[in-house]
Specification:
Blueprint: H1 7-12, E1 16-28, E2 41-45, E3 48-54, H2 55-61, E4 68-74, H3 85-95, E5 101-104, E6 109-114, H4 118-133
């Protein structure tokens, strides 16, 4: 795996791909059990544990959620200190009127977008990537 730190090269290599399924954000109290369901992402906040779960898991647990999302993984390997990836992706989706929630992983960046805007988001991200393809630096 080659980690990319040049923003233009990174954008050219985004390779956005949908993760199958529907996903939701929920909040659970620190003493609540997720009954063996592993969250796909989590953040400890003063109000409780924020989790991203598959929608069917949240439904099975009876958790409240208000946002149903599609999950997009960017398959470019970004250096964690790279400046501008989140901003470029967010700006591109903002121009198209698509909300996004970014999750940075060690290997990849992930984007949760409204489920009904998935196709639009993938189109915008692919166009962003293609527009940087001719700018790649060695």
């Amino acid at each position: 795996m080659t980690v990319e730190s040049d923003l233009s090269n990174l954008l050219a290599k985004l390779s956005p791909e949908r993760v199958p399924g529907s996903f939701v954000f929920a909040s659970v109290g620190f003493s609540e059990s997720l009954q063996g369901i592993e969250p796909l992402a989590s953040v400890v906040e003063s109000e409780g544990l924020s989790v991203v779960l598959r929608r069917e898991d949240a439904d099975r647990l009876g958790l409240h959620y208000s946002f149903v999302a599609a999950w997009i993984t960017l398959h470019a390997y970004s250096a964690l200190e790279t400046v501008g990836l989140t901003g470029a992706v967010a700006a591109t989706l903002t121009k198209a009127g698509i909300s996004c929630n970014m999750i940075a992983g060690y290997h990849h960046d992930h984007i949760l977008v409204p489920e009904n805007r998935l196709v639009d988001a993938l189109t915008e991200l692919k166009e962003l990537s293609e527009s940087h393809g001719f700018l790649m630096h060695p």
